[in-house]
Design brief:
about 150 residues, alpha+beta, Alpha-D-Glucose-1,6-Bisphosphate, Chain A, domain 4, seven-stranded antiparallel β-sheet, 7 strands
């Protein structure tokens, strides 16, 4: 069974930043937009809205926060406005766990509830965006997001 065939996506990365720093990149819209999306509405509390315009053209992620435990855990639902991606708004769940590790933190992402056909796209997307998050959390500039750059 490949990653694209599993019932969930799971990734772990080490980030040389404190959990408090990383946590803010999931709960503060201005910080979130430094690594993912072009516009965001985040109400980081259980039942609060999560809406991210991913590219300014045609992909808007929509869900709600389920759990927000400062500096250690964030759970939100995920899907897309419209029906183009086969993942309706709020139909899947993303769990982020931050565990202190030395001077930094281990970030574990688990995305469940995706249709099998959507796994490969989400796996690539999360790998791309987690790499951008790691860079921005340690003060590096990840540069313009090629996935958000409008086409001409």
């Amino acid at each position: 069974m490949t990653d694209a065939d599993t019932p969930f996506i799971e990734r772990e990365i080490y980030i040389a930043a404190r959990p408090e720093t990383i946590f803010a990149f999931f709960t503060d819209p201005a910080k979130l937009l430094q690594w993912i999306g072009v516009e965001a509405t985040l109400e980081a509390k259980p039942g609060g809205v999560l809406r991210i315009d991913m590219n300014g053209r045609d992909v808007v992620a929509l869900g709600q926060f389920v759990e927000v435990t400062p500096y250690s855990r964030i759970v939100f639902t995920w899907g897309y406005e419209g029906d183009d991606h086969g993942v309706p708004p709020g139909s899947s769940t993303v769990e982020i766990t931050l565990t202190p590790d030395g001077e930094g933190a281990l970030l574990r992402l688990r995305h469940s509830g995706l249709p099998t056909k959507a796994n490969a796209m989400h796996l690539q997307g999360w790998e791309h965006y987690l790499s951008r998050l790691r860079a921005i959390a340690i003060g590096e500039d990840p540069g313009p997001d090629p996935l958000a750059t409008p086409t001409v």
